[in-house]
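## Example record

The block below lists the input lines for one assembly entry, exactly as stored, with component labels intact.
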Amino acid sequence: MQTGNSVIIHKSAIIQQGLKSILLSRNIGICDILNEIPDCAILSNWKNFLLLVDTLYANEISKHLRILQKNGTTVIGIGTNGFLSEPVFCFDDVIDINENTELILQRISGYVLRVSGIKPNNQLSPRETEILSLVAQGFSNKQIAEHNFISIHTVITHRKNITYKLGIKSISGLTLYAALNNLVDTHR
Amino acid sequence: MITENDKLSDLISKNIDLLPVVHRLGLSTQIGEKTIHEVCTLHKKDLKFILGILNTYSSADYLPNPENVELTQLIEFLSKTHEFHKHTTIPRLYASLEQLKKLLPNEKRLIIIENFLNKYIAKLLAHIDFEEKEIFPLAGKKFNQEEKSQSPNLKKLFKQHTNVENELSDFKIILIRHIPADADMELIHDLLHTLAHFENEQRDHARFEDKILIPKLFALQSN
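Predicted structure tokens for the full assembly:
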């Protein structure tokens, strides 16, 4: 059985097909594959969708951000090398197509569970584990964003996912969790 | 819903965690077969106030009508609750942890847990101190015009409550997930039971302060 509603928006047919095969390998439902951002009437019908969008469409996505967020839609930027030179604030996360397929899958699966409202197991992705470790060491969202070359918005999204998966709300609780799981040096 | 005709002994029998609350209300002696109304008359207590407290601590959805809660009585009760946690709950938590450490001297995770507890308790005691010194005295104070326009302490209190509650709940969840394989289960149960009772008490204590005490103090400031 397929889970979630996803839409791929990318000009490159090769990337479209690559993303499609990755999503289907995990039984993630695909509603549409588009070459460009559709008009507002179509966008506003997407509720709890997962959008995988070419980072080149950042400006257009920004214009529709309010309606997308209101409808619980998660927007993942699909980029290539070099797109990280500037933080992209309209995306919940940005995935580099050069990344390992398994890592891409792991990250996308986490978002699919979120938009589907399914409680995931408490397994954190490597990226979330890294961010948890930095939170536990006392780094601010801004410092974490700069350290990882991502936007503060993306850091906040990761932190929400961490809290959702672990069921731990406070920074002190996350720090204790990180210490007990050897994610931080407790002797410092 | 608890009413004045309910027997106090039945109430405690159904929910043994109410006993410390009943004690703080000054009703824990000569309970016998008496109803709440009779016990209140015997100890010269305000029936409406007592029913408000007992119902709040018995049901997570209940809050009394603020008009039935007299500010001085509420603050006296909240102060006694602080004393109870300082002199009973917190030492009980440390006693359980100490026993666990004695039984498992090589369990490094207990040191990490103790460090967390130390920091949490330090924060909680600072919060209690802030309430005792900055918030509770507001009840008997006459405000001048400048003070009436500023009430930062009352706003700060609400945020502190959320943090205090979340941290305690997180602590309990993490402890359950990291019970050492060779730990004494009775000790762990004692520790978790004390934590769960503490968490419930904190939640009800904060509900009283956020929903009744703070609005009443705001009203005093704006009159």
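Residues 185-222 of chain B form the longest helix (38 residues). Chain B touches chain A through 16 residues (CB under 8 Å).
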